[in-house]
Amino acid sequence: MTPERHDEPRDLTRTLLGMLCVGALIVAAFWIVRPFLAAAIWAMTIVVVTWPLLLRLQRRLWNSRGLAITAMMVVLVLLLAVPLLLAVATLVSNADEIADRVRQLIGYRIPSPPAWLVGLPMIGERIATAWAEAAASGLDGVWSRLMPYAGSVTTWFVAEAGSLGFLAVQFLLTLVLAAFMYAHGEEGARASIRLGRRLGGRHGEDLVHLACQAIRGVALGVGLTAAIQAILGGAGLAVAGVPFAGLLTVVCFLLCITQIGMLVVLLPAVAWVYWSGHPSWGTVLLVWSLVASLMDTVLRPLLVRRSADLPMLLIFVGVIGGLVAFGAIGIFVGPVVLAVAYTLLTTWMDLKPAPLEPGSTRLPADAP
Does 106 map to a domain? Predict the structure, then answer.
């Protein structure tokens, strides 16, 4: 007879309690670091993408890691400060023009609706009636109709201002974490490879390298393409004499990052140039805008596929979903997270199954 093993319930209880303790520890650790997750992901993305540049700077700066990190911090600060300073300088230099436009808007009289508007099917008569009422009441009547929505608009502006303040704090935190990762990059890489080896053996190490390639591919494909397009679009606006070119360049960059495209800004600018009585410059700006806007169809796939083969739909969903989930910082975090998950999943599915052991049988292909 086989002797009874009275220690099995005790071992099972110990295992369950151990799993519960480990799970509680993971949840508690995640809850503690949750405010730093977005900044940590952003810092890791920056470090992974710019690591070759850091090593190049280190070799040029007498092989000093500290000097190289300082130079990288200056570059990262300028990447945020230059667009903001450009936008502020544009607003300050055009303050008088903005005041004149506001005064003109206050004294503006709405014209009567055109005759062809009434002839539009289904909606023409309604639009013409509303237009005529607005023209009769003037801007005062329009403002009185918009006043009930002023509270919602004010609340939205306050929320956006708070989001911008939170973004500034996150950026400073990202700089601190990026400096720490720059200083201990080799140790972090070895730890990641050891973790991948522990979880999946040789395939785990390969997945770590693929995740790194996905991060670089998204950062180059989305960020660098948006920067190049915004610079070209801003140059066209400045040459054509469009006011607030610096501020519009920043807006173009944000629109390119969100995958909306900068034609939303450039086409009204082209219309303004034509309306100002410069048809030749308007035509030049129109052609320049179309070329600069269509560059992403060629440039982005080339940059992304240099590091990882990722579908453009995944990048678009990552940008919009990241923006909704994490706010402004999610524009960069969302595509990276989805790209890493997509790369890991496709690589795992492409792995060949392990060979069958002798004597084992394989289920038929149509088995449930």
Answer: no
